Amino acid sequence: MTGPSTAPAQAGSFFPDLRNIRANIGGWAQLxxxxxxxxxxxxxxxxxxxxPYSRATGYISDLGAVSCGVYEDRAVCSPLHVLMNASFVxxxxxxxxxxxxxxxxLLCVAAKPGVAARRFRSVASGYPxxxxxxxxxxRVLTVPxxxxxxxxxxTGVAGVGTVIVGLVPEDLGSxxxxxxxxxxxxxxxxxxxxxxxxWFRQTPMSWFLGVCGLLCIGALIIGGLTGMEVPLxxxxxxxxxxxxxxxxxxxxxxxxxxxxTERKAARLRVGSR
Length: 273
What we know:
The protein is mainly α. The chain has eight helices and six strands, in the order βααββααβββαααα. Strand 2 and strand 3 (74-76) form a beta hairpin.
């Protein structure tokens, strides 16, 4: 048995190789973004501002501020800012790796064994066939394939944005920091929403990913409408960022588990020969 299914694949369909090292690296790279929470907890413990740091009122970027002082009416002092910014960069690079290594075909089938990825379907083009046998068939990309490509692009955008946030701390006064944060929130939120749609009816995890995406996008809209002038701005910002990190890590876990299962099954087949 050479594939996950003995049934012939439809035209435009194929079974992606889930056992290669590329898929393995991509899945585990995306799962590794959870390191952010460890780094954030350590940086908060080392906070040296005049008031204890609060996740409810303190902005995430305050933890990466290079200098101690007053920034936009907030007293910030984060001795471990290097760790926080390094965590941002590592998280972003992991997402970029996931976007590069997790192919559209793999994303289409990662949540359900035995399913073939379908890149295109044939439709009538409207042009007559010179042979007289109806219209000339045309190839049209399928919706799942388009969603998978969009997920890869948006995940890459989120990753690049996080790298920018880490390389350009908020107190440097550069607009790139704000732009990078928006790239992470928007790219990550919509990537999760589309991945939830792509995996709908394939895994219960699709509901969780969709909710994470909606939480991020909803919080982002509220933040934009209010200009973050809310009683708990830190909490609102975390509703933008935490669901992205948790959701993409959960997606990485699904993919890593599937890849591990496929690689294990392949070893058992080889060993039984």
